Amino acid sequence: MSDKSDILTVDRVRAGYGEAVILEDISFSLKEGDSLALLGRNGVGKSTLLLTLLGLTQLHCGSIHWSGRDVSRVATHQRAGAGMGWVPQERHMYPSLTVEEHLTVVARPGEWDVPKVYKLFPRLEERRGNMGNQLSGGEQQMLAIARALMVNPRLLLLDEPMEGLAPIIVQELLGVIRRLVQETGLTVIVVEQHARLALGLTQEAIVLDRGQIVHQSSSQELLDEPETLNRLVAVA
Length: 236
Hints:
Blueprint: E1 6-17, E2 20-31, E3 35-39, H1 46-53, E4 58-66, E5 69-70, H2 76-81, E6 84-87, H3 99-104, H4 114-120, H5 122-126, H6 137-150, E7 155-159, H7 167-183, E8 187-191, H8 195-201, E9 204-209, E10 212-218, H9 219-223, H10 226-233
Parallel strand pairs: 3-8, 3-9, 6-7, 7-8
Antiparallel strand pairs: 1-2, 1-4, 4-5, 9-10
């Protein structure tokens, strides 16, 4: 049992877009260095939960505590400044910025800097002068992760990082994310349609259905129960 205090506590959160409620009664907590697979079928609220942590949805009730501080009504940029890093599903590349400018424009003091990011992603160093729209899908995903690391976050939110990528790139990114989880002390939440990939990277698992938590266990426990996993996320 870890003696570390919770870095993130979500308590009975009800949230959505405007008056539309997507998430209902969501509660969980993470300690520094924990890793969580956030699973479920399409449209059950996984991305909405990440956006809620970032303050980008309407919070109807409940609370979000970050490092002991209630950030439920704190602005998104302040949450980012406090250590929340986000890799959006859409990647959000800027065609007017080079690879290196994508990194330096968001840089905050800390362990992660441009040389360290290039060491993690050598391909980005090769493409350092290319514009954001001159990269392949895999390179854009690498850059999106690298850019989030340049903020020097304590929590990294990864939304569908493997989506639409070639198998060889998926394997490369899996290796990177595994290193981030196992070697850096980062707290990581991974939303991923490929449930077994996400479970293989993480310590804990939550499955959502219709905006509610329907399963919560260790990742290994869920991997060891393939019938339960198939029933919950309908994987092949």
